[in-house]
C-alpha cells in the first residue's frame, strides 16, 4: 500500500541569531506569513524594487495600521521576519539571510502564498551560517525571484545589490542540494532512500512529490524480459486544507483564509495532486511505458523537464493517468531517475498555485536530487540481491526440515552471527540410517562468510554420502578430514558425529575438536558427556576415536556449536557449565516425571544469550530419545537356503499374532517372501529378518550382497522381475541401503486404523 505521510515529522524550528532557523517539516516560512500579515492582496513590492519601493511599502503598512487595520494586533517586526537589513550590515556579510518564503527554494518574501501555520517571530541579529539538523535540508533555502527578503527592508536598511542577492541565492541553492543529498545518502535500503528524497524536498523544494520506480527493479546488467512497468512507490505532500484552518487564529481577528491566500483570494489546491480536502490520490498506481511513447522519450532523455513543456504535457498523462489534472505553468517538474545502466523510475515535483513556479535553475536541482536518488536505489537493490543470495545459499546449505525417524524426535535452531552477515560455516543434520538408526551431525567451519558457507556445504554433502555407506562415526570423520585437506590447506572445521540406535538404546559418538554434547536425563539431571576431544577436521594425520554410551528413553541430547557457549565475555567451559545449569533448571520447572517440550527447550536455551554474547553463528540440534521397546522388536537369522522364504513367513505370522495384527498377515507374508527370496538368491552368509512395531510395521531384510535391487518392468514372457513391483504397490514406503557389509532392503505397512500415506 502506498503511504501518504504528512509533512509534520521534522523537528520544530528553534530561534537562532540572524533568522537562520531550521523549519519543521510542513511549517510555513516566516517571510510568507509576514507577507500575509502586512500586505493586502496585490500590494506587495514589485520585483527588483529599490529603496524607494521599500519606503512606499512601509508607508502603506503604516496607513493600514492607522486605518481599517486598527483592530488587528500589530505584529512584531525583526530583521528575519520583515526582511530589514541593519544599517551596519554589508551585503553578503552578516546580513540577515531571508527565511524560506512561500516558494521555499524559489520564493521571494513578497509572495503572498504560504504552506503552513505562521511561526513566532525570530529574534534580531545573529549569523548567516547554514546547518543541517540531521532530518532534512537546511531551512535557509534560496529565493528564486529577483527580489529577496532584503527588498522589504525599512528604517533606512541597506538594500543588497543584485550581484550579492544572486550570489546568496546560488549559495543557498548549493547548501540545500548538499543537505538534501546527505539526507538521501543516509538511507541503506530502498524505502529509506525514497523516504529521504521525499523528506528532503517537501516542503522546501516542492509542495508534493510522486516517486515511481520500475516493477520489478532491474539488478546489475539484467535485461528486462517483459514490458517496462512503473509503480508508484511513495508520495509526500503538504497537509490537507482541513489542517490549515488554524491559520486565521494565528494571523488575527478579522482575517480569514481568503486573506491569507494573497493575491489569489482563495486556497486553490485543485491543480495540486495529493493536496485535496479529502487527501485523495488521483495519480495512477501503475504505468506501463509504451515503446516510442511520450513518456519513453522523456525518460530516455534523462534530463528533468518542466510540466509545461510539450514533451512533459504528453508524458504526464501517460504516467499519472489520463484523468489526472495537470498543473498550469511551470508548477511541475518531471525528473527521470537513471541508475548506472538504465532508467529505473521517475519523480514528479509539484508546486501549488500559491507559491512561485519553478525556474530554470530548479531543473539543475531536480537533476542533482534525481541522480543521487537513482544511484542510491541502485546500491540498495544490489545490496538486497546480495542479501537474498546469502539467504538462499544458507537456506539450501541447511536442511529444509528434519526427518522423523523411528524412536527419536528432533528439533533445531540456527542463528547467524549478525543480520549483516547472514551466512556462516555452522551446520547441523539428521540422516536416517538402516536399522531404524539415525546419524546426528553438528559442524562448524571457521569464519562466517560466503567462503565458509561454501566449504560447509561441501563437507555436509560429504558427510551425508559417508553416512549412507553406514560407516562407523570415527571413519566418517577420517574421510571428512581428507576432504577438507583436498579443499585447501587452511580449510579447517570442527564436527561431532553421533549414531543413535533406538533398538539397542545406545549412541556412538566421535568428535573432531567440537564442544562436547550435553545429555538431559528424565529426572532433571544434566551432564556433559565425556567424549574424546579429537583434532579439528583439516589438520590431517590424526586418528579419531569413538565412544559408545547409553541413550536412556526420555533423555534429551543437545548438540551445538561454540557460538552458543563462547563469546568475548566468557570462555567456552564457562558457557558449557551455564548451558548445563540452564537445562537442569528448565527440567525442574517442567517436572521430573516427564521431559520438557523439545521446541520450547530450544527456545529457552537460546534465551540464555545476553547482549554481547552473539559473536559467532549458532547451530543447535536437540534429539529426544524415545527408543523402541524390546517387546516391539522381532529378530531372526535365516540361512541362505530354499526353505528360508517359508521360515520367514512363519516367523512373521507368529509376530503378528503376538502383537494382535492378524489383519496384516496376507500382505506381510507376500512381501516378506518376495524380499527374502531375492536376498537368498545372492547371499552367501545368513540373512537377517527384523520386524519393528512403532507407528507403522517395518520389515528389514539384510544380506551380504552389495548389489542393490532395482525395480524394472517385466515382459509378459519373463518368469521373474515382479517382486519389487508388488512391494512398490502394496507397501506404504520401501527402500534399499548399501552397508559396508552388504545391504538392507526395508518396507513399511500402515497399522490397522491408521491412514494410508505414500
Using brief descriptors, characterize the structure shown.
758 residues; 6-stranded antiparallel β-sheet; 5-stranded antiparallel β-sheet; elongated; HATPase_dom; PPM-type phosphatase domain-containing protein; HATPase_C_sf; hydrolase
Strands, helices and their partners?
Layout: H1 30-38, H2 51-66, H3 79-82, H4 162-185, H5 190-201, E1 208-214, E2 229-237, H6 247-251, H7 257-260, E3 286-288, H8 294-301, E4 305-306, H9 310-320, E5 332-338, E6 343-350, H10 360-397, E7 408-415, E8 426-433, E9 437-445, H11 450-468, H12 473-487, E10 493-501, E11 506-512, E12 518-520, E13 526-528, E14 546-550, E15 556-560, H13 572-590, H14 598-606, E16 618-625, E17 633-638, H15 644-659, H16 665-682, E18 687-693, E19 696-703, H17 723-730, E20 733-739, E21 742-750
Helix pairs in contact: 4-5, 4-10, 5-10, 8-9, 10-11, 11-12, 15-16, 16-17
Protein name: PPM-type phosphatase domain-containing protein
Biased composition (Gly residues): 142-159
Keywords: Hydrolase
Characterize the structure shown:
The protein is α+β, with helices and mostly antiparallel strands. It has 17 helices and 21 strands. The protein has a six-stranded antiparallel β-sheet, with helices on both faces. A five-stranded antiparallel β-sheet has the order 7-16-15-12-13, covered by helices on one side. Helix 11 (450-468) runs antiparallel to helix 12 (473-487). The longest helix is centred in the middle third of the chain and has 38 residues, at 360-397. It is elongated. The two termini are 43 Å apart. Mean pLDDT is 74; it is low at 1-157 and 240-281.
